[in-house]
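Fold this sequence, please.
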Amino acid sequence: MRPAAPPPYCLRALRLLLPGALSLLIAACGGGGGGSSTPPPTPPPTAPTLTSITLAPSGPTLNVGASADIQATGHFSDGSTVTPYDSSVTWVSSAPGTASVSASGLVSGVAAGTATITAAKGAIQGSAVVTVNASSAVLTSIALNPAAGVTLNVGQTADFTATANWSNGTSTVPYDSSVTWTTNLPNVATVNSAGVVTAVAAGSAILTASANGLNTTAAITVSTSSPTLTSITLNPISSALNIGQTVDIAATGHLSNGTTDSPYDTRVTWTSSAPAVATVDSIGVVTAQTAGTTTITASASGVSGTATITVNAGPTVTSISLDPASATLNVGQTVDITSTANWSNGTSTVPYDSNLAWTSSAPSVATVNAGGVVTAVAAGSTTITARLGSVSRTAAITVSATAPTLTSITLNPTTATGSAGQTMDITATGHFSDGSVVTPYDAQVAWASSAPTVATVNASGFVTAVWRGTALITATKGALSATCTVTVNQPYDATLVGRWLFVGIPNPFDYSNAATQYTFNSNGTFTYFLTKDFGNTSGPYGKVEAVHMGSFSNTSNQIIFNCTSHVTNYYGVDKQTLVYQTIMTPGIHVHTDVSFPYVNVLRSRNDGFDFMNTGLLDHTKQ
């Protein structure tokens, strides 16, 4: 909302002010008004600035007539990147006669040579060197894989891959979509545009792949009958295991047409000649049981293959350890018990959970799964047992019917520092009467900031720095709370520190209004002072004085004023009697388009709060 203007007679007098001086007063401090009050706007966050531009690829090579798309990436002061950044930059070629570039970064080869492609945004730029060759490489031959052709049964398919060989020694694979695929007898075998051959009827056909006047062929043989299984081989064909170890045996079927089918595990029947020594499951996984030797057989259609398994006695499990050995839970809570197997050779295996049989003496109190995870069901006590053969170990579980109570809250971090616009995540942890903790505990607490004008916090503990100062972030649950002290720094350019005099518009070296000035202090505060003597001009006032104070910060293209004190005095024609005083509401105001066009000259644009908009404002540093 625009602040209210002074009374008409006041406005007529104010318009006699030097336009630049009045605009600076109102642009920095919110305009005039007879005691009007508007809520202070939310200070704008500090926007990240562009720090560099990179291009990819950084050195492409083209043939004349070819093109390449170069992609720009913008890198910013907060560590973020924007890709693609193509439409945000200006593209230029150092040699358009060699390589031209479009507004989106598409480079076209025009003539042999090199050119530097530049993408620029203000003073930031990135470049790529483009090399253009005089002529394109020529296709010299085409190769197929499988080169020797294939033998198929009716209905079967085969996928051929084409490779293009070029005059410059390079190859392109796959080249399937760039060749024309045909068969001389489509009633025997067909081929699609991707080189996939389908057997239609018994016979022989020739597959041809053609491109640019070149072609290559492969033989296709189609059989009317399906091949039969002639043999089965196993891998590995022998294996030595210790008790409890496993090995996965893979079966391969060999067919009458010379092809193989692998894996063939699920198409065979697996058996062990001595299951007491080693067992085998339906997919060929062998498990060693006791010392000895057994033969594993895979059979199908009267054909079989075998593998020899030797089981060594090896070390044995002498004891089992459980961690934790005891636990107290509330109903619904869980605990994961980890087992350790201690072997006769002095070694240990941890975890050993999935190799043990887990039981609960009272499943109505707590259950346990095959991985040793215990779940509390009802109040009481139970014993969890982990067993391997005759070796076992127990853990005592006590289940309480009442839930633990929250005893304290802690925050991490407990102190934090940032600049306006930055964010930080505070994590809450809840500590309970049973010694347990819950992290994060963010959603269970109420978050508050002691100074929202300095830093705000949302319902998840996410803090946003607003303006210079200190705020206490509090997380509360019932009567319990914890705090984090957040300090917000407001960055500013040290080159601004000093006293700047307002000068005439447009001449930056006209010092006729040197009585209007800004003073930027090294502690981040500022003072604005204006005095204007109307002399013998007509009007209700003889002199106007204004003093406005507060803190400031700046980004690369704006100065932000946090005005905390605004007083403007209007004196009568005697230039001493105070006849009117304006005390304006504190607020945030911004000067934009900030630049230093000359040495010690600062240029900015008012922020739209001026009802007599005068555009650019110039100041010179004392």
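The radius of gyration is 42 Å. The first strand starts at residue 50 and ends at 56.
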